# Entry
Amino acid sequence: MAAITASVFVGVSVDGFIARPNGEFDFLLEGGGEPHGYDEFMAGIDTLVIGRKTFESVLPYPKWPYGDKRVVVLSSRPIDFSRVRGGKVEQMEGDPAEIAAKLASSGARNVYVDGGITVQRFLQAGLIQRLTITRVPVLIGGGIPLFGALPGDVRLRHVATQAYASGLVKTEYQVLAKTG
# Structure
């Protein structure tokens, strides 16, 4: 059985928040501000793993944002998928290692991990191989941080940084190892 490659592609305020304290991410630029690699990133993804809060935040969108990609929503409580229009959505629960094993055994290879708690849990478990963080030119002063407490350092190798006309700055890292 082949292992999955798990990646994160996320927008944050310059002060490191993925959302306001109430979960809103209205400070992110409409449509990403300008093309900054998201479409190319998504073209290489076969499965998305998102938390329940992220799932609930995209439900009101007029169009399902993930197209026909397989979307796995993590939750220990039952989820109503009746409002999903045209997506391939399923639910899983368990710790990140169990979820990664289930994904690998079901044929997933290139996985996009999204949502604050979900990213933090997979990173803490040593299951993220690639981080792409796009800083949005705004300070919001407080909110939901991208990274939470870690049991030790997570060593990264810088892959690339690109600045865009809108002020976005995208940096890609390869996750090398977790220590501690």
Notes: The longest helix spans residues 96-105. The chain has four helices and ten strands. Strands lie at 5-13, 17-19, 47-51, 70-74, 88-92, 110-114, 130-136, 144-145, 154-163, 169-178. The CA atoms of residues 114 and 132 lie 11 Å apart.
